Amino acid sequence: MDTQIDTAQLGEEIVKALKGIYDPEIPVDIYELGLIYDVMVNTDNEVKILMTLTSPNCPVAESLPKEVEDKVVAIENVKSAEVEITFDPPWTRDLMSEEAKLELGML
After folding, report:
1. Helix (H, G, I), strand (E, B), or coil: what is residue 22?
2. In the chain, what are the helix, strand and coil shares in percent, each to the nearest 5?
3. Going by fewer Cβ within 10 Å, which terminus of the chain is more open, N or C?
């Protein structure tokens, strides 16, 4: 019996976990803020997340990627998780979802 985990389904679970992580300075989760650029899941259920921070001097530059990694690796069926930080392209408010902009009174 093949118990292959659907990578798309796993991706959705990862996004759900990411939506539970909040930027300490802005009361919006990091996914809706647009800090997550890409979530890649390979067939071995190894996860790589490409993300950014609101600024290179972000006070959680050390702890936030670790929190993301810990939350993702805790998901059932995730074999490993790696978080890569990039500032290319740099984060701008344009990357925020409509929901985040509404939450922050920007719409």
Report:
1. strand
2. 30, 20, 50
3. N
pTM more than 0.85: yes
Would you tell me how many other CB atoms lie within 10 Å of the CB of residue 66? 11
Residue 92: partners with Cβ closer than 8 Å, 6 or more residues away: none
In the chain, the amino acid numbered 81 is: A
List the domain boundaries for the chain. 7-103
Residue 47: count other Cβ atoms within 10 Å of its Cβ. Answer: 23
Residue where the block lists tokens 């902009």: 101
Decide which of 3.30.300.130, 3.40.1160.10, 3.40.50.2300, 3.40.605.10 is the CATH code for 7-103.
Answer: 3.30.300.130
- Residue 1: strand, helix, or coil: coil
pLDDT digits (tens, 9 = 90+) for 51-82: 999 888 888 888 999 999 999 999 999 999 99
Residue with tokens 């344009």: 94
Structure confidence by residue, pLDDT tens digits, 22-46: 988 888 999 999 999 999 999 999 9
